[in-house]
Amino acid sequence: MRILIVEDEGRLAENIARSLRESAGYAVDIATDGEDGLFMAESNEYDAILLDLMLPHVNGLELLSQMRKRGKRTPVLVVTARDDKESVVSLLNAGADDYVTKPFDLGELLARTKALIRRGKGQPSPVLSIGDLELNTVNRTVLRGGHAVVLTAMEYRVLEYLLHRPRAVISKTELLEHLYDYNWEKFSNVIEVYISGLRRKLDQGRSKPLIHTIRGHGYMLQD
Amino acid sequence: MKWNSIRTRLIAIVVLSQTILAAGLLLTGIYYTQWRLLSTLDASMQARAMSVAALVRYTEDDSGNVYFDNTLMPASIDPAHPDLFAIWTENSGLLAHSPNWPQGLNIAPQGKNHWRFKWAHVHYRGLRVFQTPILDREEGNNFHPQTLTVFYAAPLIQLDQQVKAAGVYIAAWSLLLLCATVLLAIWGIRRGLLPLQTLADQAALVSTSNWQLHLAKDQEQVEELRPLIESMKTMLSRLERSFAQQKEFIGNAAHELKTPLTVVKSTLQSLSQKPRSAEEYRSGLEQSLEDLQRLEQLLQWMLRLARAEQWAHGALRRDLPVVDVTSTCEDAVERVRPLAQERGVAIQLAKDGQLPRKADPEDLQLVWTNLLENAIRYGVGSPSIEMTVSRVDGRIARIAVQDFGPGIAPEELPHIFERFYRGDPSRNRATGGYGLGLAIVKALVEAYGGTIIAESSPGTGTRITVDLPIDQAQSSQ
Description:
- The complex is a heterodimer.
- Chain A is of the alpha/beta class.
- Chain A folds into 2 domains: about 1-120, Rossmann fold (3-Layer(aba) Sandwich), CATH 3.40.50.2300; about 125-220, Winged helix-like DNA-binding domain superfamily/Winged helix DNA-binding domain (Arc Repressor Mutant, subunit A, Orthogonal Bundle).
- Helices cover about 40% and strands about 20% of the residues of chain A.
- In chain A, a hairpin with a 4-residue loop joins strand 7 and strand 8.
- Chain A starts with a strand and ends with a strand.
- Chain B folds into 3 domains: about 5-135 and about 145-165, Beta-Lactamase (2-Layer Sandwich); about 225-315, Signal transduction histidine kinase, dimerisation/phosphotransfer (DHp) domain (Helix Hairpins, Orthogonal Bundle); about 315-475, Heat Shock Protein 90, CATH 3.30.565.
- Chain B has 11 helices and 14 strands.
- In chain B, helix 8 runs antiparallel to helix 10.
- The radius of gyration of chain B is 52 Å and the shape is rod-shaped.
- The interface between A and B is medium-sized, with 26 and 25 residues.
């Protein structure tokens, strides 16, 4: 999963980013003003955007409504200092999906972000499953046929992304887009390495494989 | 009776004026009726006196004596109260009188020919006619003809009754008309004041979420209400603006206060999420401390602003010492000198003697240091900053701070004194400003009864001028 944080207070953005990376294994980009934020939100594929309202150049509400006007459907979690009904209503009406008020709890922010991503992909439950494969997004554990499977951080991220959209063909480019932040060099062959790792740990010695390669298109999870 | 009600007052005025009108009408009516009746009575009395005088005849001899022939006396109009009369002749005095003639009646009060008197509980009107000739003419008589003085009086009972009846009649109609006009007036006033009621109803709908006064077109055209509606609208728009500003300030303040708090909280939470190295803990704690210091500083600025604004609204302390404005400027220049040296900026101070006034020297120094620091921070590239202290008209201290930096864009200039306004937020946050400095300066200057203006043109620099009234009595010493 790849998240964009638009926040002008650099230290706060870093703290949130660190927490998202460490506790959820998300790739995180940071924009420190509204203009950059809008550009990044439009030029990259994010699974969720955390947006501060008071921003230099282009303020949060403006960014949000411009983004929505241009058809971006990325779920947006607004971080605001104001919790009066009026401003909450106005930001939800501008196209925000949820909000937290400062000073917020990092744990709550994380949980809300996860919920937002799930909802954005049509998955209501925090436990994702297909066949006898189960992935718990809260404590980040994977079970296959009731047995725990130990994955590397990157393997988990690939599987989590695939499981959010089961039975859909997902290209390597899409995986790269959603698994790495802005600062990473993206090489498509690393995806093949993670997929083969996952295959080895999940499908080896089973009669029905879950991970399918659709040649020329990408990968698909199917039972 | 509610005397603080316009409607009651108007109705009272109408009732009062109508009552006066009715009373006036009644009096005039009675007076006029009486006058008409009296003049008719007078004419008829004159005639009756003449007919009585016609009964005086000469005797058949040539003596020229007269007698009163009462066989031809006409009957009285009112038998219960017959008329009174008496006739005097030139030669022989009282010749005849009516049977009910009151002896000793004063028949010439104040020499009038008509008068009113009361006798035997009855009001009479008296008439006196002098030098009436005797009608009886004996042909060929050679004596000198006599003249008569006739007194005649008729009772006023009937006349008084007629006047009374006319009075009652007029009074009854006046009362009826009074009632009708008062009812009409109440209805008219009620209707006339209806726009006021509508205005009040509409004004009651105004709230913090609806600042509009919705009135129908014809309502707004009511001449008497127009000034009120106009001033209400202006007041509402002013209120709306200041309410919006207040709301914006609260929003900004919440943001400015909560953000550093959130930073500290998130730093500490992120540190406690999993075991960290000693180095990570140390840097996290140092950061938090730094953020807390910033928060503390911001709080101080906000409190200072709140205090200055409170003073500006008339709560300035009275027990202030007299200080020299010029020396507070000197102190401020000394205070900012390290910063100026660090940035390579020279500060020039031009003075104009002592300028005493009552003030807290800390406040004045705060104003000057803020202006100087702003000039140093934002007048980037300005080789020097000029601070000029001068006296204007002997009663104003003018302090101008001029830099020769990039200046302020015309669209930003009107906003620089607003709370939390930052021309370029990212840059200003990097320089450590909160957008409160100039707001505090303005509030303090205004608290001391002064004015502040900013002039700037891009490329040539910015000049901020403060005018402070100084104590004339003190300065002449």
